[in-house]
């Protein structure tokens, strides 16, 4: 391999600094500029994809939505790569986007692809070809975890990050990467998540409040500006759409937790999610899981949920004092 051209191209040339134009802003704070990637992380079903739909709508409609602005030109393409949804769910997502755009068909500015049934190496080859064909200014990867065989493999994860950096530079574009959070420690998943956090210009996190049903997007890292105010949205049945929830409404005292608000089936579904891959669990671990799946604190988990589950024989202790179904 002749490395001299690489060295020549990499040599820094002392020239006048040209200020970068903000492309994606939230609350007038710089989230993304060209030749950069950003990461949006969250647990499954936290509404990461819903927020992405509003990023796309803001770009196409050329107006802020929930304080999100995406300033690209009408002729600039957006490419959406989905790697995990069923055709039914993906169609629903596109229908929701068309509803917000007040459009009968997908605008020509957006190219949407579903690669759910393909292996990571095939999807990456397809992305390369799509970039050559459309040269989009924004590429959305939903979900980036599906672009590797093992998100904990350091070499494979590093190669993917290099691939994303190459795309941002070669096409002078922005790559938006969606990633799942680890359920155990609520950090971006695996080595791919660690590399992504270090590469990203901005790291955003989406969380779902199970008691209110509200989803909040906030900044975990902002390299180019100060943090913006978190954005909270909730679904309005009358509007058949999401609306922004102001801070007063979001911080109102929630409805008092009561176990009778849940059916036995709902309790069983929650317990099955805990014991999906294990047969038993210690007391301390169980309390942490109950806090997570019911969205409550330690006291309620210890004083209300666990006693109720034991009394109603939905969970029991074995001879080692661990808990089982």
Explain this structure to me?
The protein is α/β, with parallel strands linked by helices and 325 residues long. The protein starts with a helix and ends with a strand. α3 (87-101) links the parallel β5 (78-82) and β6 (110-114). The strands form three sheets. The protein has a nine-stranded mixed sheet, sandwiched between helices. A three-stranded antiparallel sheet has the order 2-1-4. The chain has a two-stranded antiparallel sheet with strand order 13-14. The mean pLDDT is 89. It folds into two domains: 19-250, 3-Layer(aba) Sandwich (Rossmann fold); 259-324, no CATH class. It is built from ten helices and 14 strands. Helices cover 37% and strands 21% of the residues. α2 runs parallel beside α3, α5 packs parallel to α6 and α9 packs across α10 (298-311). It has helices at 4-10, 48-61, 87-101, 120-134, 154-170, 190-199, 247-250, 264-274, 283-294, 298-311; strands spanning 24-26, 29-32, 36-42, 68-70, 78-82, 110-114, 138-142, 174-180, 202-208, 215-222, 231-236, 241-244, 316-317, 323-324. 31% of the residues are buried.
Keywords, separated by commas or semicolons:
10 helices; Rossmann fold; nine-stranded mixed sheet; globular; alpha/beta; 325 residues; three-stranded antiparallel sheet
